[in-house]
């Protein structure tokens, strides 16, 4: 970690020796600390307020046992959490994830990142993240609905439009948000914008489904414009086959790029001539039906590379859009050797620390998730605005505002990220977000 200075070493050393060491949270905090601690030290008010030390400890971590009955009538027990990291600039805000790999560490790191991401959007949203170690794979629709209801039986008292506003994340889409919202509404006896990503018939925003993936591509277009080029004809690798991946692929194709891949945990779908919108729609339909993508119809021009990730295929742009730590050091070395020009994180923290180091040393522009994938939560913020106004905006208005927000985030990140004639997007994002959080935290006293 050659970027780490004495200040961040000191700050992190206590965390590193903690017996409950949380590796994902540690990596996320380390990334931020090395960029902002000097700013904090040089600002009397920030230093006195110990801003980063306060953000490093969530306001609270709520932990729940979720008990429900499966289709066979057997009792199932899961563990769930809501990490409310900070509401200094707005109500707690961040998604809910259902996946067997979910731990308190995962959610603590995601909640911390969410504070910075939400600050970058310019909208009044604090940071939170939640989820459960529940695996929806192989579960029936009824079982997933019962699980959502059992979870809300526990979590509903802590959720509300001005309190904490969850949304979807991995394995939590519009359908699950509908069930969660329904259960919240029933428990609390009120209707309000307590969730985003809702169905359009009960307060959801147009374009929320597309927003994260589209926003990634709007951000990449800004990076390319900064380099004096565009997406036209660029070869793009996308990983994942979910909400973020398929919408990033769709928008990149619409902007003239040649998207070569999507992927899942079993392998990579390769389109040598570039994915068509029909091929992307096929992947979306398979995912929605809970079916795999290993046997695509011949007319779509796809090949499934069993057991492979997309990263060995030569390309100009990489968009990891599946999950954290999905791209490691050796994959980064292959991308670098194949002449990659930029990478934007659709997923949250998809690069391992080793992969980040390879990219940095090679001078490859890397847009961190907190900037590049902020479009999703930005449109969630617009959904909260629409709910508060009791109005519905047109898709065109939301999309235009989304593009505008991504361009503003890009400008803010570039303004803080110029180092030795190049742009360090990670540093720019950390500092721009930190300043906003620090101003709010110092202004509100010691609490
Ligand atoms: N949905 C949203 O609005 C936002 C999501 N994100 C992040 O984007 C990432 C993806 O989230 P969604 O698309 O919403 O989830 P999703 O549940 O729609 O899709 C995730 C997909 O990734 C695939 N996957 C999981 N692990 C993989 C691996 N190791 N290799 C290849 N594929 C893998 C799974 O097959 C799954 O279909 C996550 O890191 C999430 O936190 C970030 C910002 C907003
Ligand atoms: O829309 C939201 O509130 C949350 C989106 C999210 O979980 C994320 O940005 O990682």
Automatic annotation (TrEMBL):
GO molecular function ontology, one term from the record: glutamate dehydrogenase (NADP+) activity
Feature type site, description Important for catalysis: 169
One GO term (biological process): glutamate biosynthetic process
Active site: 129
Binding site for NAD(+): 212, 243
Pfam families (UniProt xref): ELFV_dehydrog (PF00208), ELFV_dehydrog_N (PF02812)
Superkingdom classification of source: Bacteria
Protein residues bound to substrate: 93, 114, 117, 168, 380
GO cellular component: cytosol
Gene3D superfamilies cross-referenced by the UniProt entry: Glutamate Dehydrogenase, chain A, domain 3, Leucine Dehydrogenase, chain A, domain 1, NAD(P)-binding Rossmann-like Domain
Keywords tagged on the record: NAD, Nucleotide-binding, Oxidoreductase, Plasmid
Domain Glutamate/phenylalanine/leucine/valine/L-tryptophan dehydrogenase C-terminal, chain residue ranges per copy: 205-445
Reaction equation(s) it catalyzes: L-glutamate + NADP(+) + H2O = 2-oxoglutarate + NH4(+) + NADPH + H(+)
UniProt similarity note: Belongs to the Glu/Leu/Phe/Val dehydrogenases family.
Assembly and binders: Homohexamer.
The protein's name in its UniProt record: Glutamate dehydrogenase
Species the sequence originates in: Dinoroseobacter shibae (strain DSM 16493 / NCIMB 14021 / DFL 12)
Name of the gene: gdhA
């Amino acid at each position: 970690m050659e970027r780490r200075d004495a200040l961040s070493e000191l700050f992190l050393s206590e965390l590193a020796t903690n017996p409950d060491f949380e590796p994902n949270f540690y990596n996320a905090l380390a990334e931020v600390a090395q960029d902002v601690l000097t700013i904090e030290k040089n600002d009397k008010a920030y230093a006195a307020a110990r801003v980063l030390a306060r953000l490093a400890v969530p306001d609270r971590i709520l932990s729940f046992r979720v008990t429900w009955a499966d289709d066979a009538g057997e009792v199932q027990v899961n563990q769930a959490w809501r990490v409310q990291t900070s509401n200094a600039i707005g109500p707690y805000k961040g998604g809910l994830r259902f996946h067997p790999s979910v731990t308190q560490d995962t959610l603590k790191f995601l909640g911390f990142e969410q504070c910075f991401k939400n600050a970058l959007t310019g909208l009044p949203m604090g940071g939170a993240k939640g989820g459960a170690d529940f695996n929806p794979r192989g579960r029936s629709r009824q079982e997933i609905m019962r699980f959502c209801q059992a979870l809300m039986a526990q979590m509903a008292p802590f959720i509300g439009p001005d309190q904490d506003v969850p949304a979807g994340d991995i394995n939590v889409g519009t359908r699950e948000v509908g069930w969660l919202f329904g259960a919240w509404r029933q428990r609390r006896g009120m209707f309000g914008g307590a969730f985003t990503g809702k169905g359009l018939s009960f307060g959801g925003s147009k374009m929320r489904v597309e927003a994260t993936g589209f926003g990634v591509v709007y951000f990449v277009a800004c990076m390319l414009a900064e380099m004096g080029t565009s997406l036209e004809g660029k070869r793009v690798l996308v990983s994942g086959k979910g909400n973020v991946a398929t919408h990033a692929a769709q928008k990149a194709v619409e902007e003239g790029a040649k998207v070569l891949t999507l992927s899942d945990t079993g392998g990579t779908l390769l389109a040598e001539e570039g994915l068509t919108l029909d091929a992307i729609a096929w992947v979306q339909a398979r995912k929605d039906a809970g079916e795999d993508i290993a046997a695509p119809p011949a007319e779509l021009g796809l090949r499934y590379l069993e057991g492979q990730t997309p990263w060995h295929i030569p390309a100009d742009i990489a968009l990891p859009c599946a999950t954290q730590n999905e791209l490691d050091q050796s994959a980064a070395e292959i991308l670098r050797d194949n002449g990659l020009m930029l990478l934007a994180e659709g997923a949250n923290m998809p690069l391992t620390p080793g992969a980040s180091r390879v990219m940095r040393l090679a001078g490859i522009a890397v847009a961190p998730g907190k900037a590049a994938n902020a479009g999703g939560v930005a449109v969630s913020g617009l959904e909260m605005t629409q709910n508060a106004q009791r109005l519905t905006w047109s898709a065109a208005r939301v999309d235009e505002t989304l593009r505008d927000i991504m361009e503003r985030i890009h400008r803010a990140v570039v303004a803080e990220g110029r180092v030795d004639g190049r742009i360090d997007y990670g540093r720019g994002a950390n500092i721009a977000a930190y300043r906003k959080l620090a101003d709010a935290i110092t202004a509100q006293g010691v609490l």
